[in-house]
Amino acid sequence: MNAPAKPCLDIRNLSAVLPNGLRVLRSVSLAVEPGEVRALVGESGAGKTMIGKAVLGVLPPSVRIVEGNMLLEGEDLGRLAPKARRTLIGARTALIPQDPLTALNPSRRIGPQMTDRLVRILGWSGEKADARIRQLLDEVQIRDPERVLKCYPHELSGGMRQRVLIAAAFAAEPRLIVADEPTTALDVTVQKQILRLIAQLQREHGTAILFVTHDLGVVAKISQKVSVLYAGKVVEEADTAALFAAPQHPYTLALMAATPRYTDPFASLKPVDDKVLAGLAAEIAAADQAWRRPHG
Amino acid sequence: MVEPLFSVRGLKVALPDMTRKPLIGRAPLAEILKGLDFDLPRGSVTGIVGESGSGKSTLGRALVRLLEPSAGNVMFDGRDITHLPEAELRPLRRNLQMIFQDPMSSLNPRRTIFSIIAAPLKQNGLGDNLKARVAEALQRVGLPQSFAGRYRHEVSGGQRQRVGIARALALSPKFVLADEIVSGLDVSTQAQILTLLEKLAAEMGLTVAFISHDLSVIRRLCRQVIVMREGAIVEASATDTLFEHPRQAYTRDLLAAIPLPEIDDAWLLPAPKAPA
After folding, report:
1. A126: domain range?
2. Are strands A64-72 and A75-76 parallel, antiparallel or unpaired?
3. What does DSSP assign to residue A98?
4. Which of B102, B260, B269 to mutate to test binding with chain A, by most A CBs within 10 Å of its CB?
5. Predicted-assembly ipTM surpassing the 0.95 threshold
6. Residue A122 domain-assigned?
7. Contact state of A271 with B188 under an 8 Å Cβ cutoff
């Protein structure tokens, strides 16, 4: 076991560029402690999904990491040979995707899809994998596992599909789960059940979660720490409770004022002020200039 | 008392259920809307809220007569449009406009924004003075005139939705159906679009049916709300009444499920054993 002081995931100064030289991640640093939920929040294009993909080693080929380190339980992913890196990521992380219908193979039954990873990648015996999956289906409160295991993905509701993927994510006891907008496609009542389930399993299994979302409401409910992203840059980082009590960055403040709240309809849904956007643009430009100097 | 713009009684819509279609022959009909009664008062925004599959979009499509009801009747502006044939609907279409959820798929990629906004004007006999009319429509939604020559992929998501609004409002319609028009947008853009729609609805005295799954957005924008579930109306009332004194358990559940951007440690706890 690792020393408890070591973060589960430690991203240091990570920068990534597109072929045209545009920086899509701008010196991102963040740490996820063991058993902690860290939210990554931002609008589209903020790079939050990109960070999750970088951690899992599944960045699109056009995105190149040019600087920085990612340490998974102290192991520097950049220093490992590709095969060793994949093995480590495969054993210690898992993904809960946004859209379970795309993530599941439509032409295979749920059962084999869930055991596949355990058997083929982690080398478990079929019986052990089977027993484990049944146990997890019980934990995600699927009452009739026999039926569900025999179903094709389209035969399940959106909420059920997401339960199946949550069960699959926790099955191999990963140390870190990347949850990429896992409730965005769901109705509010189902979203609440799924968030509750993720929180419960996360607590019981002591799993750390990097929780990607655009919804500050979800951030407030699920996370202990939060990083606010804009244009691939962390503009504010805080304990979730502190962020909501006293947001420091003008952009965080503006995002909060833009987020709809039925309890306070006229204090919410405020468009982001042009001054805030101009400030952000200046901040990004200054960061890029400072970064380019040593990088020629 | 002013006569409502829409008066709907016993509205039923049945659509073919393709999941139960036999190999040969017609699919059996499934009843999507199960007898709805409501009015849409003139000059105000009515929210229609419900979860997926509740029938809210089907209801919208029946109002603008993209679907023909299977029973009941729909009175629009004093006229029964329930079973009007397309030829007789044509002259009314100008007053039954729609703003769509996804402007990327509802704006023609091969046409300039000018021609997208001009098309319904020409169709409805307002082809004279096109340039001035399109310019006015763009200005109304806060887009610069230079956008007229652009294509949909050359503008941002929020600007694209403004084009959708400009197209619908260019005809000065009596009724606008807005179906989940902000659900694909970031919160900051969403706020801009809602503020714009709020302003235009007030200025132009529009009657709007605003379909959304987001009760927070509805509270801000709408004067009255219809809550739907499984093809039926659960509750319909003035917005403040609905939010402050929801009568139905389902409405209360919907409200309780919204994650508000504020710390609440009890929110994720299982409901039955919530601590005191």
Report:
1. 96-174
2. antiparallel
3. S
4. B260
5. no
6. yes
7. yes
